[in-house]
Amino acid sequence: MLDAIHKRASVRAYTDEPVSEEQLDAVLGAALCAPTANNVRPWHIVVVTDAGKRAKLAQVHQWASFCAQSPMVLVFCADAKRQPHWWIEDACASLENALIEAAGLGLGTCWVGIRGGEAGESPGPEREELVRELLGIPGEIRVLGLVSLGHPRGEPTPKPAGPMDAIHRESW
Ligand SMILES: Cc1cc2nc3c(=O)[nH]c(=O)nc-3n(C[C@H](O)[C@H](O)[C@H](O)COP(=O)(O)O)c2cc1C
Q1: Would you say residue 58 lies in a domain?
Q2: Pocket of ligand 1, candidates 8, 10, 11, 75: which has the most ligand atoms within 8 Å of its Cβ, to mutate?
Q3: Is residue 167 domain-resident?
Q4: What is the pLDDT of residues 40-59, one digit of tens each?
Q5: What is the CATH number of the domain that holds 144?
Q6: pLDDT tens digits for 50-102?
Q7: Cβ-contact 149, 107 below 8 angstroms
């Protein structure tokens, strides 16, 4: 897994090879054992393989087009009624676990941001609403983001870690 953290890179081109149920189970299992504030575990994940739905997810904004091509899209959500303060952190931790597990399995992923802000803010709530309507997600459930999942077309190229001046020792 330590190796997987370093070799993970966003993948935006996929082969047609499907993700097996075993691989999916492993990715979901990793997502569901993330740290979670007060152990509330507010996570919900919608697994989408249907080509028509993926095509619509791919249109949610201009940086999501590859969701039409990856054989699977995981939609990371959280119950904000059960966890109003920490749902974003909880959902992010879960999503990141999924990315790392997938990298460890040799699968490719890309995080696609969805979560909207308040009306008038950018991004506003509109794109979250689009996903919610398409997949029948209830109103109290927030949509954090999508993860495209599949076999990478070509070798993923991890970016170097950094910037190293982000690290501050003892004080800023
Ligand atoms: C909150 C968040 C939202 C992101 N949204 C998108 C997106 O909508 N489309 C996309 O292609 N990549 C998206 N990314 C992936 C980033 O572009 C990518 O992680 C970054 O460029 C670093 O590259 P790497 O993942 O290969 O290390 C997102 C990443 C994060 C953390």
Answers
A1: yes
A2: 10
A3: no
A4: 999 999 999 999 999 999 99
A5: 3.40.109.10
A6: 999 999 999 999 999 999 999 999 999 999 999 999 999 999 999 999 999 99
A7: yes
Predicted model pTM: 0.97
Lining ligand 1 with CB less than 6 A are 9-10, 12, 63-64, 110-113, 159
Number of domains observed in the structure of the chain: 1
In the chain the first and final C-alpha atoms are separated, in Å, by 30
pLDDT band at 118 (very low <50, low <70, confident <90, very high): confident
Asked if residue 14 lies in contact with residue 69, where contact means CB atoms within 8 angstroms, the answer is: yes
